[in-house]
Amino acid sequence: MNKNPIKLLAVDGGGTKTLAVLVNEDGTILGKGKAGASNYQVVGAEAAKEALVEAILAAFQDAGGLMAVEKAVFALAGIDTAKDEKVVAGMVQHAVNGLSIEIGSLVVENDCLSALLGATQDKAGILLIAGTGSIVYAHDGNKQIVRSGGWGHRVGDEGSGYWIGKQAIQSVLKMQDGRGEETILSRLVLDKFSFDKIEDLYNWTYSDSYSVDDVGALATVVDEAYRLGDAVSIRILDHAVNELILLLKTAIVKVGIEQDNFEIILQGGVFHHNAYIKEQVSERIQLITPNVKIITTIEEPICYIIKRGLNYCSSLE
User: Fold this and answer.
1) Is 306 a member of any domain?
2) How many CB atoms lie within 10 A of CB 301?
3) Rounded to an integer, what distance in angstroms lies between the CA atom of residue 107 and that of residue 119?
4) What is the pTM of this model?
5) How many distinct structural domains can be found in the chain?
6) Please, what is the end-to-end C-alpha distance for the chain in angstroms?
7) Burial 8-17 (b: 16+ CB within 10 A, else e)
8) Which of the chain's ends, N or C, has fewer CB atoms near its CB within 10 Å?
9) 167, 270 Cβ separation under 8 angstroms
């Protein structure tokens, strides 16, 4: 190991971008690097590895080129099963070996789990993320960590931006058929995508240009319709609240902290762009766990991952 290694390499890798950051003992950022997606479930293992290499190399170049760190934390999306852990661990090792980086010790873990441990500093707490997708991680303050949700847009992600957007599209199509009531979502959704008619919306959903992110962006359209008094949009948002509360309740009961003092951290675009959902989730969960403190964070996940990494460094010293 180099005599003067950098303290920590923290990597936040997701389905759209990868951020690598080098920091010293007090958390001062020495170098940053960015690249594309590194969720292997989205782009494949080879492309994900290349994104990691690109981001890490850029961070070391930004910091002055010293290719040695005491500790590294890779917080990556797509680590949901034992199979994922094996695939991603191998992918990370290939990336590190290819760059000839000296690393004293290395952790590879789910990005949401890493953010939770960094945010709570190993105390009891819960992280609820509702962005394009949705997931909860809960920690009892000891060794028990549980997950609720996070099964992806095809079979899960209830209460997320994508889920809300999909409900909006379904409501528009039902209105078109006469199976659903009139809703101003019809006009607002078409305007969002610059479509002339509902048939254009339908064609888009089965085209190559369809994307999860674009559907997720419709959550802000539903919020706009809600503020205009649209009954369909109100029901969609209430349903989303119910799903997010269910995620939280399940995790709280699993780790057995119903009567404890702990924090719930709300993170993601749904909470930042929809005041109604944030207020309803906060109010209803406090009826279940009266000792809870609700925090809506605007910090980027990498900030919590850095905290997680530095705490990990301290535990090894």
Assistant:
1) no
2) 23
3) 17
4) 0.84
5) 2
6) 16
7) bbbbbbbbee
8) C
9) no
